[in-house]
Write a structure and sequence with these properties.
single chain, disordered N terminus
């Protein structure tokens, strides 16, 4: 499943809100957790959990390389 031009419709960039969970996302789109996970996996070929980790790790790397923030603050800001 891709949007026009071949871009995946569920591409995240930046950071995720602290405390965001798969359950929160499922409730937001009004489907069960398992339905959301299956649809995400089918659409993107990776799990929603793995994608959330990927986004958080990318944000942490960005903050570590571009700022002088302490590790604890980087962890908090990366979600």
């Amino acid at each position: 499943m891709t949007a026009q031009g071949g871009t995946p419709p569920y591409t995240w960039s930046g950071s995720l809100p602290a405390g965001l969970t798969i359950d929160h996302l499922a409730a937001e789109v009004r489907v069960s957790r398992s339905v959301l996970q299956r649809r995400f996996q089918r659409a993107l070929g990776r799990t929603l959990h793995d994608e959330m980790l990927r986004v958080r790790i990318a944000r942490a790397k960005e903050l570590l390389s571009e700022t002088e923030l302490p590790i604890a603050l980087v962890a908090e800001r990366a979600g």
